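Re: iron/sulfur cluster structure - here you go.
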Amino acid sequence: MTVVENPENVLVDRFGRVVNYVRLSVTDRCDFRCVYCMAEDMTFLPRQQILSLEELYEVARAFVSLGVKKIRLTGGEPLVRRNILSLVERLGQLEGLDEFVLTTNGSQLPKMARDLKAFGLKRINISLDSLNPVRFRELTRTGDLANVIAGVDAAREAGFERIKINSVIMRGRNEDEVLELVDFARDRQLDLSFIEEMPLGHITEHDRQLSFISSSELRELITKIYPLSPANSSEATGTGGPSDYYTMQGTSTRLGFISPHSHNFCHLCNRVRVTVEGRLLLCLGNEHSVDLREVLRTHPGNLEVLQQTIRDAMNIKPERHYFNLEEEPQIVRFMNMTGG
Ligand code: SAM
Ligand code: SF4
């Protein structure tokens, strides 16, 4: 466990977990409609309900002043937020923010990768669930595979290192592409994480109970071709994430398996999420939250009140979450609202 040197400037919850990682959603909108993430017909938030870029910056600044070292911009699709580069530029200069990273669907990277790098973004995760253009379109409903691959290459050319591909694998939809995805990552020296589908929001396209495929099953499949050596589990590295990492011979590519179902990682949790409405979510799988927008708009420019609200919020961070595929989702928010 992290040693707390200056308790005033560190966020610690009731269970002694230090929170030093924030996933900040900058929009609920997206140019894709991935089948596991959104309904086909979505209603997005009206402008006045979402945090302005200035308010997002204030939130980030408050967290960093409280010892947060890592911020991930997410969404929705973060790069479709208007003027997002201006926020990236400001966050890139925030002192104390050691890891400034982004999760994207890749569609805007052909035109933005270079600026993102220049403005101080450190790393990029790109979601990619299929290498077959027709299937890619089916899974994303609107996406163009060639454009996303061009985005991956633009990120490499811009000089980003340790680019990571995130793939959600679903039985009957794309589990036959697991090895192709591994080869894609190996060829381009990318890392690759497989994510188990989570029951967030109601979807109608497939039955999550039937499509669920566990990380251990995927690992077995890959091991038949590429023997895997355990690298650094989250336990060992203290990343606090639900990922287990493996290396393969003859490549720098690391494989991760993100298993919210088959793995209980809650005792290591070091993260919170902020939705684009300014709702501070203390846990991905619970509804415990605090309204930061209210604080921002009642006390504009008052960093201290914001800091105190965030400190107090640590007292309601739940000990753990429960996901149960056999029941209706208890979490009715879609992932685009949660900030993936
Ligand atoms: N639009 C960006 C993207 O797709 O990378 C960022 C936001 S997206 C919500 C973040 C991640 O959440 C993506 O890797 C996506 O595959 C994953 N995701 C969305 N819904 C999910 C679900 N129900 N279960 C597991 N992962 C999900
Ligand atoms: Fe958009 Fe990302 Fe959700 Fe896909 S996973 S619909 S790209 S927010």
